[in-house]
Known about the structure:
- The N and C termini lie far apart (about 65 Å).
- Helices cover about 5% and strands about 45% of the residues.
- The longest helix has 10 residues, at about 5-10.
- It has a seven-stranded mixed sheet with strand order 14-13-12-16-21-18-19, with no helix packed on it. A six-stranded mixed sheet has the order 3-15-23-22-17-20, with no helix packed on it.
- By secondary structure, it is mainly β.
- Among the domains are: about 350-460, Sandwich (Immunoglobulin-like); about 485-580, Macroglobulin (MG2) domain (Immunoglobulin-like), CATH 2.60.40.1930.
- Bound molecules: CU-O-CU linkage and copper (II) ion (2 copies).
- One copper (II) ion (CU) binds next to loops.
- One copper (II) ion (CU) binds near residues 372, 406, 464, 467 and 472.
Amino acid sequence: MNRREMLLRALQAGVILTLPKPLQFFANDKGNAILTELVGNPLRFPPVFTNGGTMTLAESNVQVWPLPAATTQVIAVNGSFPAPSVVIQKGQTFTANFVNNVNEPTTVHWHGLSVPEIMDGHPKDAVPLGGSKTYTFPVINRAGTYFYHSHGDMITAKQVYKGFAGFFIVTDPSENFNLPSGNYDVPLCIQDRRTANSPQFTYSPGTSEMMYGYLGDTVLVNGTPDAYFEVGRTLYRFRLLNGSNARVYRIEFSDSRSFHIIATDGGLKDVPVSATQFNLAPGERVDILVDFSSNTIGQSVTLKSIAFSHSGTLPYKQGIALDILRFDVTSNNASGGVVPAAFNPITYYNINEVVNTRTFTLSVSGSTHPMHKINGLTFDINRIDWEVPLNSLEEWKIINQTADFHPMHAHGLQWQVYSRNGNTNLPPADKGWKDTINLNPAETVRVLVRFTDYKGIYLFHCHNLEHEDDGMMLNFEVIDPIGIQQIGSEVPEKFRLHQNYPNPFNPATKVKFDIPAGINDTSTIKVYDINGKEVRTLYSGILRPGKYEFNFDGSNLSSGTYICRLVSGKLSKSIKMILTK
Ligand code: C2O
Ligand code: CU
Ligand code: CU
């Protein structure tokens, strides 16, 4: 439904959804008057957060739809919907004193940013009602469009739907490249809501909405329904954030114009890439450069989501056509920005340097209440599902066995997409630094992953927020690399795994092993509990022939007997290690 149809429907129903501005005349270049229909609401911009200040989360009533509509009850940060935008330079320390005045424990998560575990807004670190927490961390990420949002346990979807999400924009003067800036650098947070419930953001998903996600039939941009934005005949940078719970947008302009994709989740690409369309799934960001200089004053062009086929039921269905934001060309103002030929190079990971491949299968199962699962598991806040050594390059192979989209996201890093269904020739919005990648139905996506910044417990989950709250989320822990050391230069004759020393041990022990000449296969070292359940992968990769040793740290394990197993090609050896605490 487009804006015109909506207005018509509203008039037929005797309800005024939007107060049309009076029709206005503009003169075009040839001096002819053009009738421009300026219905809608001017695009809003969130206030800018003052670094070091307070972020108070509280219910608040704000005017979302224009008068005479009633106000909307939102979960606002500092009384503002949309939540204030953080704008901060790389290298500075960000600090916010978060005060939780809503009636449930919650957290703030800084999506896409590398921050220490206790600052990451994991639901285990929730701030109670009336409680407060100082979130502070150095901004080490590249310049780019990030965001923050609720990560409360099982309430993320509801809190984001009601307004708890804002931009976190990282700047870096060394990455200016004469891009459009100031008023010509425009953040656009795209969120869908339900017309039938307006002016309220009623959040009441039923079983099928937990399956497909809570989808709306109208789009708010920066909290503005039926939004328009007046532009000059010049180049703009738009930072698109999909802040929706579940909706995937297929972005295109009403005149199918081309634009340049310049940044992905983790900042600028290596080169601007011309495109006419891209997909934007929940949690993803794409920055584009759009040139209005070939338009005449008085013309309008609309940013849309075009229709695509997808399962689900109307009216709240993926793939319906939606208007997002209308641009009205109203001036000859110039931004002075350019489309650069190139940005800084990006070093792409080499698939041949991967030391470990992990597989994640996304499925849906359960009869009374079907749930989305990762490797058959749903979220357990206290369970750590795997460990990743810091600095090691891993491949995460994500297999979507369902008929729905799953925008998969990991905390604590930016990753690189390697392939979609085996195809390494990726669309421009997939290539570059990413923290969220949308899996299409029945698709397999491989991402290359290297944690370089912090150890600790982080999350891997679907950014369809209904799926996330329903448990499509796992904990993993970034750990110290075990630090395998080669001892001397002797090449041993036999394949051996020596008994650990000391044994029993608490909490650490030393293990030595020998790789003889002629072994060129991958070696893996894993630890299992007495029931054969894998508790840790210590190493996976090629080891040259030689004598080695490493330390095994059992601090996070309980007392018991553990099996350490070394496998190199067809050879394998095991030892029993006894942890006594
Ligand atoms: Cu934006 Cu854990 O997510
Ligand atoms: Cu995140
Ligand atoms: Cu999902």
